[in-house]
Amino acid sequence: MGTPHVASVEPEAPQRLGVPREVVLLGVVSFLTDVSSEAIFAVLPLFLTSVLGASTVLLGAMEGFSDFAASSLDMASGYLSDRLGKRKSLAVVGYGLSSVAKLVLLVATTAGQVFAFRVVERLGKSIRGAPRDALLSGLGPKEKRGTSFGVHKAFDKAGAILGPLLAYAILSKVGETAEGFHTLFLAAVIPGFASVAVLIFFVREHPGPGRQRVPLREALRTLGPGYRHYLVSAGLFSLAYFSFAFLMLAAARVGFELKDVVVALFLLYGVFYAIDEGQSKAYLADLTPEASRATAIGTYGFVTALVYLPASLLAGLLWSSAGPAVTFGVGAGLALLALGHFLLFGPKEGPRPLAG
Question: What is the CATH number of the domain that holds 86?
């Protein structure tokens, strides 16, 4: 009757949140990682500009390169995951690299060292993203896919909110000095390595979709018009998606203290990001077959990353030459352009329902 195969994919004992155990555990991994990362990222622009004396142009360059690095290996990692039929092992490599990179901050005294940390840490994110999301999309039944991604992102963004609060608590106690920042960086390393341990020892490797033996070019060719339309819309939106560091600088410029910036802006941004990223990944999974799903998700990440670099560089130049109002005005206009393309120029038949 084929029921044993179904039982291997669906949850053995449903959780209270209505998703498989592995989804919750992957959520814990992302929660711990984001507590670690966002505790650092929340104050890194201030550390770079105030303590190390770097310029906003350098900040824009660093954020642009790091945003590109965060997705630069997505296509290769996703395709390799499909090719090998492996998900978890590549995710472990990515999470591990990000955690090891954070050790650089414990001895960082120059802007170049911070720049190196930021790029290498984001490369780890790029390696893990597509395999992890493909693993996540294959857990449980298809009709629960949106719920699974939503639960995962709820954990993820809870960590993104808690991380800056942790940063505020530590800096309030030890002071916003070079030594204070290094104390914070030391504390932030701990949950990063804890996330890797949870992934290695508690998340089980489920059977993959089998080896994807077709060349990358042919795998990309199988992706349909709905996928390509969404890819163009996402690329346009990425032009407006310059680094969150500029929002922090804008808040500080109008008189917010550090405690206000990590609280007020991160709460608002976390709500948007949790809705946007979780449902985008579920939508992409619905548009693509399982055998090429990691490739599709990785290609999406890679293409949008190609736009992140000029977007953040443009933001840094606009900020220096015309000020924050023009910078955010241009970003808003580009975001509206992307929305118009998505609503008006989609394929007539709409997304195709796919098995798996």
Answer: 1.20.1250.20
pLDDT tens-digit series, residues 26-71: 999 999 999 999 999 999 988 998 899 888 888 888 887 887 788 8
User: Tokens representing 295?
Assistant: 């490739």
H or E segment at 64?
helix 56-72
Range of the domain at 260: 19-205+216-344
Total tally of structural domains belonging to the chain: 1
pLDDT in tens, 191-203: 999 999 999 999 9
Let me know: does 329 contact 265? Beta carbons within 8 Å.
no
pTM above 0.85, yes or no: no
**Burial label, 169 (beta-carbon count in 10 A; 0-12, 13-18, 19+):** middle
In the block, residue with structure tokens 């990309």: 220
* Span between the terminal Cα atoms of the chain, in Å: 18
Tokens at 329, concatenated = 């005005």
Note whether 346 and 227 are within 8 A (CB): no
Whole-angstrom CA distances from 186 to 105, 176, 197, 304 are 8, 15, 18, 32
Record the tokens describing residue 324, joined without a space. Answer: 């924050």
